[in-house]
Amino acid sequence: MVKRSRILAFLLIVVLLGSTMGVTVKGILNNIKLGLDLQGGFEVLYEVQPAKKGQKIDKDILASTAKALDKRINVLGVSEPNIQIEGTNRIRVQLAGVEDQNQAREILSTQANLSFRDANDRLMMDGTDLKEGGAKQTFDENGKPSVSLTLKSADKFKTVTQEIVNSSPNVLVIWLDFIEGKDSFKAEAAKQDPKYLSAPTVNQVFNQNTVSIVGNFTAEEAQTLASLLNAGALPVKLKEVYSTSVGASFGEQALNETILAGIIGIAIIYLFMLVYYRFPGFIATITLSLYIYLVLLIFDWMNGVLTLPGIAALILGVGMAVDANIITYERIREEIKVGKSIKSAFQAGSKNSFSSILDANLTTILAAGVLFFYGTSSVKGFATMLLVSILLSFVTAVFASRLFLGFWVNSGFLNKKPGWFAVKKSAIKDIAENFDTLDLPTRFDKLDFVKGRRVFFIISGALLTVGLVLLLVFRLNLSIDFSKGTRIEVLSNNPLTTQTVETALNKHHITPDDIVISGDKKEIASARTKDVLSKDEIAKLKSDFKQEFGSEPNVSTVSPTVGKELAKNAFISLIIASIGIILYVTIRFEWAMAVSAIVSLLHDAFFMVAFFSITRLEVDLTFIAAVLTIVGYSINDTIVTFDRMRENMQKKKRLKTNQDIADVLNVSIRQTLTRSVNTVFTVLVTVVAMIIFGSPSIQNFSIALFVGLITGVYSSICVAGPLWYVFKTRELKKKGVIKTVKEKRKYSDQPQV
């Protein structure tokens, strides 16, 4: 008898969820803040340096500097800037959506120390004499833009003007950021464009509290100066050690391309799940849609900033979220094949797949956590989205999928309908045979992974050796992230050539090390130089290139110090992630599996490095993110196999011969090979979509993931498993017999002799 109430409950929940998602998703999407790489803007990392001799940079100074920067950003009208204090002497500022990046850069870094001096550079007044909010943009008697200053004390200004009147020459020089021992009125007065703001002649004593700064200002420049003075002087000097800027056109194009890639990749996954898993696949598409909605909702609640790598993590997360569904559905199909009822198969499959899913997700969370801790800027955004994705994929795939499928199973509608689970009736055993799922035949029963282990080891060893030699010869094509220099990306309205871009750069006295042309219409060019451009050089470059090519270029600079730190942190993060995985797998499984798993992961990581060395693809921060993602993801596949090996060992209870160990390995890999291939396929679909349709900005990241996924599935099957066999046979040789089940102690109330 079919319990229609359960089916009705399912339909009501789905309709309720669907309508809620449909009504609210637009608002969520509009509310999510986009990073500077998606809407344009810039990021700069400042090293805070003393403004005066003997000044110490401590927490209070950093906090007051950050506060001063925040005031200045308010002048720009940028909504929700991101200002972070890093370490003991650095401040990172991220401004997404800022319209005039050159103006923003100037306003942020200008100290704005106002000073009034005589012709001999003697200090008469400074910014502390200015009334709070006392600077205003005005016009002089000739209609030219000027800045009006309201002072705290008219008496002090009277005294100052009295001294100036009696001096020779009788000028009151108004400076911004006067540098003692370097700047002087006499030197600047001889120049056509002096550094000081103005130098009016004082012929009479002024008993007033207002001063007017008149110069060759535009109205915008006068307003900027007034705003700067009102915001207050910075208590320190700021030195740029890292910066990156993205033009609005670049951001819009990257957003559109990456969303298209995501839609295509996700659509293919949905189609695959429906075709391969039938009705459970339909349930998976519902929960995956719920997963995507929840990720965006939680990210919005977190007030997170969505970046290009963040979208990539969301798309990648869809592929990873399918894993839990595939593991569960494969388990249910196995239970159906041994003759169990649909309801019993559903309960047993759900229960038996839980540990594999939990272990796989926890190891990926470990890698993502390390990436978050050691990552910077957009890489940290990628790690945040990856962590949110993993946690929510676990919730939706484990609980929501089982809840929804449970409605149908418990209704009785699916009774005696194994075809709805893509199981042929001819493949189902009679329950009376007492057949175990571990004994089910597979389509891979002829494959012997133990026998072929030497071939696998030789292939891997040869590839790694060749890779090492080529790596030593060619080395890595390191981006400026790990060395120093400037990266310039140009987006043009017309097709570009190397010569065109080189000529444009030479006009700015920039000699590029290399220029790469990309894009469907050859409209994108990327150039690198070892020189670190100053903020003035960047401003001039952005202005001229916008006029010449139609849009502002992306300009990123990295100082040598920061480059070394990024390289060091990348190495440390890989080591920590590896150690963490070894410890976790050792605790959950055994040391032989842990060592085999980590060798497999290092094999994958090195292969990715060697591939990038051979192909000369640029290695940047996103490459490190890709390596750590693969470290976390590759262990997923290995753990699914190890989990089945643990089951098969417990079934045997004792391993007495090498053949026993070989049987455990071969049977386990054969039984999990389908889900291994299917899980990596779903992630590969999203990655390939990003390579073909996604933004060029993350193409190298996507290629690294693709290479890592291919090598990951190979190493899980052909390296980790056979290596475990080698370790276990050595252990067997020492022990004679390996007990795989802990025997419970027998207790007796009889006296022991």
Descriptive report:
With 753 residues, this protein is an alpha+beta fold. The strands form 6 sheets. It has an 8-stranded antiparallel sheet with strand order 3-4-2-11-17-14-16-15. The chain has a 3-stranded antiparallel sheet with strand order 6-5-9, with no helix packed on it. A hairpin with a 3-residue loop joins β3 and β4. α19 packs antiparallel against α20.
**How many whole angstroms does the radius of gyration measure?**
33 Å
In whole angstroms, the N-to-C terminal distance is 62 Å
Beta-strand content estimate: 5-15%
Number of helices: 20
Q: Which word captures the global form?
A: elongated
Strand runs, count? 20
Report strand order across the widest sheet.
Answer: 3-4-2-11-17-14-16-15
Judged by helices, strands and strand pairing, the structural class is: alpha+beta
How much is the average pLDDT? Answer: 83
Low-confidence stretches: none
Helix content: 55-70%
Topology:
Elements: H1 4-31, E1 33-34, H2 36-39, E2 41-50, H3 59-76, E3 82-86, E4 90-96, H4 101-109, E5 114-117, E6 123-126, E7 130-139, E8 145-151, H5 154-165, E9 173-176, H6 185-189, E10 210-214, H7 219-231, E11 236-246, H8 248-277, H9 279-301, E12 305-306, H10 308-337, H11 342-374, H12 377-411, H13 453-474, E13 477-478, E14 485-491, H14 498-506, E15 514-518, E16 524-529, H15 535-549, E17 554-558, H16 560-588, H17 591-615, E18 618-619, H18 621-652, E19 654-655, H19 658-693, H20 699-735, E20 738-739
Parallel strand pairs: 1-12, 13-18
Antiparallel strand pairs: 2-4, 2-11, 3-4, 5-6, 5-9, 7-8, 8-10, 11-17, 14-16, 14-17, 15-16, 19-20
